[in-house]
Design a protein that fits this description.
Low-confidence stretches of chain B: 822-828
Shape of chain A: elongated
Largest sheet of chain B: 6 strands, mixed
Helix content of chain B: 10-25%
Number of strands of chain B: 33
Radius of gyration of chain B: 27 Å
Shape of chain B: globular
Strand content of chain A: 15-25%
CATH class of one domain in chain B: Alpha Beta
Order of helices and strands of chain A: HHEEEHEEHEEEHE
Number of helices of chain A: 5
Number of helices of chain B: 22
CATH architecture of the largest domain in chain A: Single Sheet
Structural class of chain B: alpha/beta
Oligomer: heterodimer
Number of domains of chain A: 4
Distance between the termini of chain A: 48 Å
Helix content of chain A: 25-40%
Distance between the termini of chain B: 39 Å
CATH class of the largest domain in chain A: Mainly Beta
Chain lengths: ~200, ~850
């Protein structure tokens, strides 16, 4: 039997209500009581294996989210705990990791692209198309004006120094690799990550 | 890390120096406690502060920030003087016997070949004397005056216990107690593990701090063994992965190097890459460099990379300097040499030294793009937040874009942990609002620029237009597709070169990097990841926690690079005959026909012990280096240099005070303070309740540690009339922080060269966004100078002054910019 952790909770929860109360002789009253008890919030949640986003111990975590991943359901995280099967953290989390739910749902999470024009005193909410079109245009203008195809010795060097990039320290390898391909194919050399700090 | 987190439990001695694992890596530190309980291990902590790691140590010793090389060189001297080294290991597995060129010298703080004007060395004498066949000369008897062992003895002879104590401020008795304990692991069956972090890297001599410890470990025979190794406890969830994939100025994926201007052709580039073995019969792994490189170019440019165009070698940018690292980038920005900057999940306003310089630099840009899940200081650098970020927005002409991204809970993919494990993680929820994945955003920019270049032309479009982008949805590549691309696959049928037997069919995912070819028949985006996503499936998604013999390996949990190997250099866990040094904890052993054990051999699987191939197969000499040859910029042996801001003279060589090979920009040198104005030693650190500058956005962490403070000892507090919780003004030459003082017994004055030296601890976590109170950020104070090899900034040792001050007005600690509409005030 392929028993998931969530299934296990469901089974034992139901079993407890049915058997122990029943065994104490409450009979039908016990069944009624069991039906009125609010079920464990996690029994209705979807459990997902993930990795803590902070340090490089990379503790295994279990994320519980509402929503069953049906097409029109938007899921949201309701609980995060340590993965007891993980060989390093074995279910434990530190004061940072134990607060992961608060970073996922932080008031400072960004939800809309914003733009600040030169000299402006405020942010303006913009569409993704506006933001990406404008960034791509600015990058191309700068690249076309400042790209160095050959150095003074006449060697082909194909580098672009006047726009730079700092790459993420918590993004996945896959995001990192696609970022690498894009940045280097433009000739970008002022390119670094958080390894130094 | 050379070893795994769980393997720490196999240690007999755990040395935590240059880190504070109990607070910064608490769940990893549990394995230290396991070692203490189950393996009767002793824990040694050397740190300027009595940290929570120190509170469970068997021996704790204080040390002045920035003097670790002096301490560890003293340890080496102790080991050699007391003959506490693992002789057979040192003789067979290190370069102790190799003979160095005549002409190599060290005098008055400088090695041979120094050029003062360039602040760099001509390293030609820093190498072995070679015989007629081009092999390094050897003296196994260690009689030759220029064998590495004798040069080392001479070099470290100055680091007597008295000298160590004079430089470091560590009491001699504590220091000698630690030397004695470390020396016990010279016994072949005993191991010491070194756990370190930014406490060693963030110095102008950071790389040499780590090298000195690696030398201690080689002398003790502790590299490659269970419970041993050099274990860098990395700070971010995927900083190892970003480094592996080469997102650093001078890197390509898999630790290959970016081409330089002088490497005008592919052949010229390859000349310096194919290390020729320096000992007879030695395997030199980098001899396969060409296969890794050609397969990488095939991954980048597909059919457009071919033999006729040198595999599109010219399409990669070339470097005219060692690297465009972060310090150089902000120097260029301040000089008006940069127009655009993109910060992807990175907050330089908090993370980089000399915050004023960072703010001025960003103000000079034409455009700044910030991709982040959170509202960062960098994105808001132009707003007026009062004394923590004074600004006149109308004067700043930078266009700023703030692009909302997903976080870990909202995406699939792999992260590489400190022990090099690639662990797949699964999406648990949808992103808030319009937040998008980095893959979607980068693809959006790529597609737009590609369209523009194809339509309008422009500067050198070839590399961009020919970039491989054959994803099912070009607007948002699936992580699985990208993961497979990094692993690599055969582009044509590949045969075994020896037998001609078919090895791979076209299209087949590679099982291992040994299958890579340099004729264009294979591709791999990052050769060290080959084997992570094969035709058998996604190896990084494996979740079998079983661990044979409870060795601390768990070989079927996720996947480790390279080749799912968990302990690097594990051939050195066995003696030259192939038997484990520690029979109780063997890693791999020779069974008569092959190497077998709990881990994947870091060695030819059927190479016989009698062949005498050295265990360090990435090195041309096959052995660990006590003498680094030309690999380090400031010398082949480590030497104590003072931090660039230091209250002490360099008592070893007063004329050469600080790292002579570190690059210092004139504008930064002008911003260095002296001890007559700033008499105290500052050092930055992290609290266990916070992660960098992120968790000030998380309510629970903001409640636990709500506001900025500095930590000072009771003696200094009394001297300066600062009571517990008083407001203080902390200043360096570069700026000032007004915050509360936390007076503790954890920092005590150190007697350095006869003078009491006070240390001020500066936690780094506060800024002007988030739900915690506003702070100035410790980087307001720190100097803009870096390590001579890596340019990691010197955050751990600089000069400060501290004075008591009056409490600031309430608005200075509340949230919200002063320009535009006021947000709700500080909630705490």
């Amino acid at each position: 039997m392929d028993l998931s952790r969530r299934g296990f909770i469901k089974l034992t929860g139901a079993g407890l209500a049915a058997s122990s109360l029943g065994a104490l002789g409450f009979g039908l009253a016990g069944t009624a009581l069991a039906a009125s008890v609010r079920p464990f919030k996690l029994t209705a949640a979807t459990e997902t294996r993930n990795t803590c986003t902070y340090c490089s111990v990379a503790c295994g975590i279990l994320i519980y989210s509402q929503g069953d991943r049906a097409k029109n359901v938007r899921s949201s995280v309701i609980h995060i705990e340590g993965d007891p099967d993980h060989p390093v953290n074995r279910g434990t989390l530190c004061p940072k990791g134990a607060g992961l739910l608060d970073i996922v749902r932080a008031p400072g999470r960004l939800t809309v692209p914003k733009y600040r024009a030169a000299g402006a005193t405020e942010w303006t909410e913009v569409s993704w198309d506006f933001a990406l079109d404008r960034v791509a245009t600015l990058m191309k203008q700068d690249r076309d004006a400042n790209f160095i195809a050959k150095n003074v010795a006449g060697t082909t060097v194909n580098r672009w120094t006047s726009t730079g990039m700092l790459a993420a320290s918590a993004a996945s390898n896959e995001a990192a690799y696609v970022t690498f391909k894009w940045a280097r194919s433009l000739g970008m050399v002022t390119f670094d990550n958080q390894a130094r700090v | 890390m050379t070893n795994t987190w769980q393997d720490i439990k196999n240690a007999n001695v755990v040395l935590v120096m240059g880190g504070n694992a109990a607070e910064a890596h608490p769940c990893g530190f549990k394995w230290v406690i396991e070692a203490k309980i189950e393996n009767k291990a002793k824990l040694v902590v050397v740190d300027p502060r009595f940290t929570r790691t120190a509170s469970v140590a068997d021996i704790y010793a204080p040390i002045r920030p920035g003097t670790d090389i002096a301490f560890l060189s003293g340890v080496i001297r102790y080991l050699l003087e007391n003959d506490a080294i693992q002789h057979d290991y040192v003789r067979a597995y290190t370069n102790a016997s190799l003979i160095v060129k005549d002409g190599f010298a060290f005098e008055d703080g400088l090695f041979s070949g120094y050029n003062e004007e360039k602040r760099s060395y001509d390293k030609s004498t820093w190498d072995y004397e070679l015989d007629e066949q081009g092999y390094a000369k050897v003296d196994d008897t260690w009689q030759h005056p220029r064998c590495v062992m004798n040069l080392l003895k001479k070099h470290i002879d100055r680091y007597t216990p008295e000298m160590v104590s004079r430089i470091c401020g560590t009491p001699q008795d504590k220091y000698l107690e630690i030397c004695k304990l470390i020396a016990t692991t010279a016994e072949p069956a005993k191991a010491l593990t070194s756990l370190f972090a930014l406490g060693w890297t963030q110095h102008s001599i950071g790389a040499q701090n780590i090298r000195t410890m690696a030398m201690v470990q080689l002398l003790l025979g502790n590299i490659g063994v269970a419970g041993g190794g050099m274990n860098a406890l990395r700070g971010h969830s995927n900083i190892q992965g970003l480094t592996d994939i080469g997102l650093l100025s001078a890197s390509l994926p898999g630790y290959m190097n970016m081409p330089k201007d002088g490497e005008v052709t592919f052949d010229k580039y390859m000349e310096t890459k194919l290390f020729k073995p320096l000992r007879p019969g030695q395997t030199s792994f980098w001899q396969n460099y060409r296969k890794f490189f050609v397969s990488f170019q095939k991954a980048m440019f597909g059919a457009a990379a071919k033999a006729e165009n040198d595999w599109a070698y010219d399409w990669l940018p070339k470097l005219d300097v060692d690297g465009y690292d972060i310090l150089r980038a902000f120097e260029m920005m301040n000089n008006g040499q940069m127009n655009g900057y993109i910060c992807q999940g990175f907050n330089p306003m908090q993370a980089f030294p000399d915050r004023g310089k960072i703010r001025r630099g960003l103000s000079k840009l034409k455009y700044l793009v910030v991709m982040d899940p959170l509202d960062t200081e960098t994105a808001n650098f132009w707003q007026d937040y009062g004394p923590q970020n004074p600004s006149k927005p109308e004067d700043i002409q930078t266009e700023v874009f703030q692009l909302p991204t997903t976080c870990f809970a909202e995406e699939n993919g792999t992260l590489v942990n400190s022990a090099r494990w690639l662990q797949w993680h699964w999406k648990a929820a949808d992103a808030p609002g319009q937040a998008k994945t980095d893959l979607w955003i980068i693809a959006g920019l790529y597609n737009r620029m590609k369209t523009m270049y194809a339509r309008e032309g422009g500067a050198f479009p070839d590399a961009l237009l020919n970039l491989t982008w054959n994803y099912a949805d070009p607007h948002e590549p699936e992580p699985e597709e990208v993961s497979k691309e990094m692993n690599g696959r055969a582009l044509a049928d590949v045969a075994d070169p020896a037998t001609g037997a078919p090895l791979l069919k076209a299209g087949q995912q590679l099982d291992a990097f040994a299958q890579l070819r340099d004729d264009g028949t294979t591709m791999s985006g990052c050769w060290i990841f080959a084997g992570s996503f094969t035709d058998k499936g996604n190896m990084t998604a494996r979740r079998d926690a079983s661990d044979p013999r409870e060795a601390g390996i768990a070989p079927n949990w996720a996947w480790a690079w390279p080749a799912n190997r968990r302990i690097l250099y594990n051939r050195a866990s066995a003696n030259p005959e192939g038997k484990a040094w520690n029979p109780g904890k063997p890693v791999i052993e020779w069974n008569g026909s092959k190497w077998v054990g709990v881990d994947v051999p870091d060695y030819g699987p059927t190479v016989k012990p009698s062949d005498g191939v050295g265990p360090f197969i990435m090195n041309a000499e096959g052995v660990g280096r006590l003498f680094a040859r030309t690999m380090m910029n400031e010398g082949p042996f480590p030497e104590h240099y003072e931090p660039f801001e230091s209250p002490s003279e360099n008592v070893l060589h007063p004329k050469v005070k600080s790292n002579p090979a570190a690059r210092v920009f004139a504008s930064d040198r002008a911003q260095m303070g002296v001890s007559s104005d700033f008499p105290y030693v500052g050092t930055t650190y992290r609290l266990t309740e916070h992660f960098h500058y992120w968790t000030k956005h998380a309510l629970i962490n903001a409640i636990l540690q709500p506001e900025e403070f500095v930590e000072i000892g009771e003696v200094l507090a009394k001297e300066k009339g600062i009571e517990q919780g008083a407001w203080v003004k902390v200043s360096s030459k570069r700026g000032q922080v007004i915050c509360k003082a936390f007076v503790t017994k954890r920092i005590k004055p150190l007697m350095v060269d006869g003078k009491p030296t006070h240390v001020i601890g500066c936690p780094i976590h506060w800024g002007f966004t988030g739900v915690a109170r506003k702070g100035y950020g410790a980087n307001t104070l720190t100097p803009s100078v870096g390590d001579a090899n890596t340019n990691t900034p010197e955050f751990k040792a600089f000069l400060l002054n501290i004075e008591k001050t009056s409490p600031p007005p309430a608005i200075d600690v509340a949230q919200g910019p002063r320009n535009g509409p006021q947000k709700k005030g500080g909630s705490l």
